[in-house]
Structure formats: structure tokens, C-alpha cells
Amino acid sequence: MTIKTPPSTGALAGIRVVDLSRILGGPFCGQILGDHGADVLKIEPPQGDDTRTWGPPFRDGVASYYFGLNRNKRVMRLDLTTEADREVLLALLADADVLVENFKTGTLEKWGLGYDALSQRFPRLVHCRVSGFGADGPLGGLPGYDAAIQAMAGIMSINGEPNGDPLRVGLPVVDMVTGLNATLGVLLALQERERSGRGQFVEAALYDSGLSLLHPHAANWFMSGKAPQRTGNAHPNIYPYDTVATATDPIFLAVGNDRQFRILCERLGLAALADDERYATAGARSVNRATLKVELEARMREVDGKSFADELAAAGVPCAPVLSVPDALEHPHTAHREMVVEMPGGYKGLGAPVKLSRTPATYRHAPLTEGDTFLPRESED
Predict the structure, then answer these.
(1) How far apart are CA 322 and CA 251, in angstroms?
(2) Catalytic one among 175, 258, 275, 276?
(3) How far is it, in rounded angstroms, from Cα 35 to Cα 31?
(4) Catalytic: 242?
(5) Which tens digits make up the pLDDT trace of 96-128?
(6) How confident is the model over 44-62, as a mean pLDDT?
(7) Number of domains the chain contains
(8) In CATH, what number is assigned to the domain containing residue 100?
(9) Whole-structure pTM over 0.70, yes or no?
């Protein structure tokens, strides 16, 4: 859908955010806040956010990576190594509700802009830091990077084929979930400020966020003491929850209970499998997954993948065709859910996934919109 530029009427209208962050986690947080109505001013160093160069592809010299994380923000550049520009930042913070940053621990403190100093001057300010490992502890203060955290947090160890090497998840899942956690932390702090009148320090660390993604592998290990193993596309606890081959394209089955399994077997003409003691219960199917996959695929290689997936979904069995990124973004339901947004100037991006009935997300500023002051606060009359 093509978006006009409505006034800020979202759930966070009236909230002012200074976004000092760079790369992914912090900017993703700032974009979410902006989508839901916050007035976000992104402060970049003189050379700009590093992701402006992370291409190709490029448009007018700026990489697509940057465009994907920085809408609904206005941008200005400051050199915070200079006292004059630090004073400009302090003037902006005087009117701000939230500061989002991901400087290495000690950098802002060196400039007199750490939480202790800012909280004395601006007691209502919510100061959110996205960090790699937090400020202290054995790894405190070290820089964090998505793929390195995927490796350290155990994510790579359980991603890949059973007999293959550990693999990085094919998108920056740790950075993105850290951005979501930062957003959640900001909203929690703003809610608490309604009671106390005081801001607080919020930290979302990549390391913590990476570990938080380990369900159900961590739960399995806590209970069994057995180290989780790679299972390819299959779920470690339930089956069939896996890609299966068909006569055409593979589909993903996500069979979560005995009723769904019985429907699957009946649709395949294999009703007897649902009563076979090897497969009659979820636990038995998980234990005997290797033979079950052989029996299912022997029949499924005779069916058209997409049409059978549609048939199963209509019958209440969770499943899906395996689509490419272009196919997913061009799917009619993607358009129906308003998950692709177009704005003047050729901008196209992913829409906001959280839908609010009275105060929906709005898209007001394409990336690279310039501006150095907050918009007037809405009247409280």
C-alpha cells in the first residue's frame, strides 16, 4: 500500500526520542517507537551511520540496509567528540522522553553523558542502552556482533543438518530480538514513569537476548541433561514438524497434536498410521520420526505440494509451502496485512507487525528526512 503522511496519532504520540544508535538493534528499536507515533530524532556522527555503506544495493549512495531500519525518524549529524555538539545534544535531551544509544561502555561516560550524569540533569529521561554483554562481568564492556553471539549463545550449535556443521541463522535474529527487547524495556520504563515520575536506565544486551531464544533447547537440557543436537528443519520435541518432499515443491508440516496427525493421515490415504502404536501419540511420533518421515514422504511424493498444503490448512492442519523471499513479500495476504509499505520518493519497506485498533502505526517520515528540532507537542487541551 502507498502511505500518505498523516499526523502522529499513534499510541506513542507526544513521546520524544533521541536515537543515538547505529547499525541494527538500536535503530530497529527507534523505528518501532517511531512507527507507533513517537517523534524520533536520529543523531548520526559526521560520517553517518555505518549501514549507509552496507550494500549493494544502493539508492543515491545509501544502502538498502539503512533504509530498512530508519523510517519515521528525522536525521541530524553531530560530532559528540566536540564540546559544542555535546551541548546541542544536551539541549535536545531537555525536551526528550527517551534516549536510545549503543555506544561502547565508557564512551558516553567519558563525555559526561553517561546515565549517572544525565539522570541528575534529566530525572524523567528513560535512557536505553543496547550493548553486547552489559557493562560488567567476565565479558562486560566487550563489543557484541550478531553472528558472534549466535555462536556464543549456542544458537549455531542447534542450527543446521544433523550431520552438518553449525550454521548461522540466515538473518540477524539476535540483533533484531535485542531491538525488540529494547523497545519493550522502553515501554515498561515509560509505564512505570507514570507512577513514579522518574526515568530509569534500560539495557538490552545481545548476549542475554541470544540466550533468551534457546527455547525449547534450554528447557530440554535443564530437564534431561542431554546436550541438544542439530535436527535440520525438524522440531526437537514434536513430529511431523518438518519439511517434507512432494511431487513438486517441499512443504512444511507443523503437526502439533494427535487430531491434526489423524487428519493428515486420512488425507493421504494412510489412516492406519494414526492407530499404529509407533505413531499414535506425540511422544511416540517424536521417538520414531525417522521411519515416520519415510512413510509420509513415500505417499507425499505423489501429491502437488502447494495444492496439498492448501487442502491441509483448510482442514485444520498447520502447514505451508516453502516460499522464497520475493514470493512471501508478494503474497496476497502480505498485502492484506499491510506488511509492505510504500512512501513518496521510492521508499518501500516492511510494515509494522503490531496492529492497534484505535491507534495504529503510521508512516510519516521516509529514511533520510532531515530536521534538527522536535515537532511541537500536541495540545493536552
Answers:
(1) 6
(2) 175
(3) 6
(4) no
(5) 999 999 999 899 999 999 999 999 999 999 999
(6) 95
(7) 2
(8) 3.40.50.10540
(9) yes
